[in-house]
Amino acid sequence: MNAFSQAVSRGVCVALIAAACAALAHAQSFPNKRIELILPGGPGGTTDTAVRLMAGKWQEFLGQPVVVLNIPGAGGVIGANQVAKANPDGYTLMGGFDSLLVALPFVQSTVEYDLESFTYLSGFGLGAIYFVARADSPYKTIADMIDAAKKNPGKLSYASYGVGVITHFTAERLFDLTGAKLIYVPYKSSPESVTALLGGHVDFAVTAGTGGAGKNPAARILAVAGDQRRPDYPAIPTLKEQGYPVSLEFISGVMAPKGLPDEVKTKLVDAIQKANAKYADLFKEEILKKADLIFVNMPGDEVYRTWKERQAWFRETAPKMNLDKR
Known about the structure:
By secondary structure, this protein is an alpha/beta fold. It is built from ten helices and eleven strands.
């Protein structure tokens, strides 16, 4: 090796060592400024409400504020695209859910991420999907809804949030099994879809969480798409109980862009776990009451594995919905 090559090699080694030292120093000092947690959706949804309850407790163990920012649009794709492209330094996190990570990549051409685009930190909530009518409507059971839709194909409508999201998939799965045909009207969030229902703009709403319908006397929840009745709404029957084999609960979790340094990931997960241990009773009560989620402490790896398995079901269902990527 000549002198020039040796000099180049030494320079490369020095640069690599400097970069490694800089990365290590960054990890050791993390966090030294506020952390932004992107919620890809409008305010008031289940994941948004829950993560706001928890973020203040995470910052207790991080020593820096965790600020939740809503970025709605395209069922959450706009916000998720932004996080997937963000610097994986731990200062940009995301509140994620099944629709965003599992379903939308099959149906929206604007999606610029997949399951491998993120580092999974924790799952914190199990949510349910509800079928809702107005309390003054003639629909008292899910069978009433299905029968009316079959007698009037293409005339009744239902609202949910976004195209190709988990509630949309669940509703269309039910309608595919029963032969019912309804018009779908997407909104930005479950609370907005409930507002549209109560305002008479649609006949039904299919919501992630109750979307504010649970305690509203103007709304009537017809069914929940879960294996068992929810502890917060024990009087509401499941679809299975009513003879419709459709069941799906969604997971809410927190993640970071792919490439997060191990040392930074460890600090974030450690803060979340310490908060979960200290505030478990508070989280169980408040998240169920305010966000319609059952609090869980699910490792990030388990969240990833569960969503990976669910992709098979969505991959099978998407073509039946005639949802070409748009």
